[in-house]
Automatic annotation (TrEMBL):
Superkingdom of the source species: Eukaryota
Record organism: Dichanthelium oligosanthes
Cystine pairs: 29-44, 38-50, 43-57, 72-87, 81-93, 86-100, 114-129, 123-135, 128-142
UniProt domain Chitin-binding type-1: residue ranges: 26-68, 69-109, 111-153
SMART domains tied to this protein: ChtBD1
InterPro entries: Chitin-bd_1, Chitin-binding_1_CS, Endochitinase-like_sf
GO MF annotation, one: carbohydrate binding
Protein name per the record: Lectin
Amino acid sequence: MKMSMTAALLFLAALAIAHAGVGADATECGKQAGGKLCPDNVCCSKWGYCGLGKAYCGDGCQSGACCPNRRCGAQAGGATCDANQCCSQYGYCGLGPEYCASGCQSGACCEKRCGKQAGGTKCTNNYCCSKGGYCGLGSDYCGTGCQSGKCSGAAAISAEIFDDQTTLSNETIIALPSAE
């Protein structure tokens, strides 16, 4: 009897500790949180929690880098992908060249040109313009050399401007202030 009472108390204590962190306000994303997205394109599960892996990115994934079985485009009645993912030519949501390159139907498609390579055109939907002049998201687009959009840092932008003498001469407004 003493052993079962101790086991029962330990079980109740463990249950209380586990339940303490999962209240009604623990929802982080998706329809459960007013459409809020997870940071860094992390998946939002069907239950409204941010994370990675099949439980978050699999069936019912609401946004983020959901598994590539999510349908979109002409193959899915014109549906679009969430969280800036590309809709491939075959009608699947995802990130990377297999989704965003040739035949991409919507999202951050690689064919969208920008920056000095496209006459100063800026990307839409807060996408970054990569050093090579393509619209997209992630470190390849928003990192070092990013030309416009939500770039990772000012150092990346200024390095690109000062690396190109033509751009520097066209951007005299950004000259350093005088010591007066």
